[in-house]
């Protein structure tokens, strides 16, 4: 998918929609969990870091912000690495970086050093795992892709439910330094997930067909032609506005509860409530998005999810007790899960599978600045006003605005895409392959009808999992 890569899925390969794909899905589940839950889970250490280094809320919020900014801002770099080296080697190196950053952070003596280690190094490592895992997941699944994306996205709330209370326990038992060290060891599991990402190879064809396919594929590090797509531009603008406020409530809800006078453990439990609801919201939304009458209109379901999330923030801003925050976390978990399950499914529906690798890198880069300034600006607002209500209101307005941009942009600025261009492209490629088959010796001829029948009779041979020297562990 996307620009041609070392272990790229060749154009003639049909996604298995199962088989080894379930192992790839499990790896994507774990990687997504670490990538999205980690920036929120480290927020349980913020109080200790404030006391240790004598800094403010906005200073500690930069840790989560830098983690997310690295995850987003290094998108094009990750795309180029994948397009050059392949998914598996990039993920193995990323797992080592992620672990190294947290282990090194446990020995830091200033908040700036933590920015560089837990923020930059760990963030880069998670980025080198996250994007390749999405690319591999979408190579292995086609018809079941919405469900697969929903299940993989469920890794975020599952890990949030576990990492948040685990971080609280580690902080209580070993302090923030011991907690960072143990979490760094846990991140080595990213390397195991990277080892699961085996490349796909098409069923054996004639040499002539293989040579033609190789000639048609030209190596590209990034495909900038996606900017010619109006739908991609609308998506990029809307997503950039969305992430300004999307990650703010999970980062500050624990501190909100502590500010109301509730114990640390009880406050951290709010993230577990949010995550528990999110666990079920993502797969269910994936199933709904996969329905025949819903899938063509996923972009509007995505817009509804963002509006739902924004209004939840606005309602949550009026919470004055623990019960109100708990209700907020339930509804935020539902809406947040819907957004998480749909965001990359919608992007793939807009740009298509062949440009997804480059498109996701460019989208993440566009979102990086918004992610970088989101939580810290909210922290500044909190330091200035001393009230969490304004933080949640601003976040809600930003997310609702992004939903309106997405929906209205697609209604008025984007012409409805037909699948004809993609179909014609595939038909032309098949026709060229058939012509090349006709030019082979008589004994090597294969009638196109027979080939089509063969592929129908043995679909399990499409997208076989193989290992090659460049991607073996």
Question: Which structural class do you get from the secondary structure elements?
Answer: mainly alpha
Order of helices and strands: HHHHHHHHHEHHHHHHHHHHE
Number of helices: 19
The major sheet is characterized as: 2 strands, antiparallel
End-to-end distance, in Å?
Answer: 22 Å
Mean pLDDT equals 78
Structure notes:
One of its GO terms (cellular component) is basolateral plasma membrane. One of its GO terms (molecular function) is lactate:proton symporter activity. Belongs to the major facilitator superfamily. Monocarboxylate porter (TC 2.A.1.13) family. It is a multi-pass membrane protein. The protein is mainly α and 473 residues long. The chain is built from 19 helices and 2 strands. It has a two-stranded antiparallel sheet. It is globular, with a radius of gyration of 23 Å. The protein starts with 20 loop residues before the first helix and ends in an 8-residue tail after the last strand.
């Amino acid at each position: 998918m996307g620009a041609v890569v070392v272990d790229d899925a060749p154009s003639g390969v049909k996604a298995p929609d199962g088989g080894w794909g379930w192992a790839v899905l499990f790896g994507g589940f774990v990687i997504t969990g670490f990538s999205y839950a980690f920036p929120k889970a480290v927020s349980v250490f913020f109080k200790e870091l404030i006391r240790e280094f004598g800094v403010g809320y906005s200073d500690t919020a930069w840790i989560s912000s830098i983690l997310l900014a690295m995850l987003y801002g290094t998108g094009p770099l990750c795309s180029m690495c994948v397009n050059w080296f392949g998914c598996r080697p990039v993920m193995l190196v990323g797992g080592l970086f992620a672990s190294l950053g947290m282990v090194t952070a446990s020995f830091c003596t200033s908040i700036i050093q933590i920015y560089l280690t837990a923020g930059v190094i760990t963030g880069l490592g998670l980025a080198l795992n996250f994007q390749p895992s999405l690319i591999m997941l979408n190579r292995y699944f086609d018809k079941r892709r919405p469900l697969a994306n929903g299940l993989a996205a469920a890794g975020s709330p599952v890990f949030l439910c576990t990492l948040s209370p685990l971080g609280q326990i580690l902080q209580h038992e070993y302090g923030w330094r011991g907690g960072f060290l143990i979490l760094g060891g846990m991140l080595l599991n990213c390397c195991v997930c990277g080892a699961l990402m085996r490349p796909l190879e098409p069923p054996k064809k004639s040499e002539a067909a293989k040579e033609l396919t190789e000639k048609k594929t030209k190596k590209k590090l990034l495909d900038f032609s996606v900017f010619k797509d109006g739908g991609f531009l609308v998506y990029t603008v809307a997503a950039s506005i969305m992430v300004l406020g999307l990650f703010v409530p999970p980062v500050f809800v624990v501190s909100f509860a502590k500010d109301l006078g509730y114990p640390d453990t009880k406050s951290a439990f709010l993230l577990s409530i949010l995550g528990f609801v999110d666990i079920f919201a993502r797969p269910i939304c994936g199933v709904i998005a996969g329905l025949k009458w819903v899938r063509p209109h996923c972009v509007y379901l995505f817009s509804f999810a963002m509006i739902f999330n924004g209004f939840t923030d606005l309602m949550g801003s009026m919470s004055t007790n623990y019960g109100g925050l708990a209700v907020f976390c339930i509804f935020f978990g539902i809406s947040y899960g819907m957004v998480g399950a749909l965001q990359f499914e919608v992007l793939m529906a807009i740009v298509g599978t062949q440009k997804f690798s480059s498109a996701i890198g460019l989208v993440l880069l566009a979102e990086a600045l918004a992610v970088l300034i989101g939580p810290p600006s909210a922290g500044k607002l909190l330091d200035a006003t001393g009230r969490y209500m304004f933080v949640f209101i601003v976040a809600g307005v930003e997310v609702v605005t992004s939903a309106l941009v997405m929906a209205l942009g697609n209604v008025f600025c984007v012409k409805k895409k037909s699948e004809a261009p993609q179909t014609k492209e595939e038909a032309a490629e098949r026709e060229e392959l058939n012509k090349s088959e006709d030019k082979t010796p008589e004994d090597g001829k294969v009638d196109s009808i027979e080939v089509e029948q063969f592929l129908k009779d043995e679909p399990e041979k499409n997208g076989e999992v193989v290992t090659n020297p460049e991607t073996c562990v």
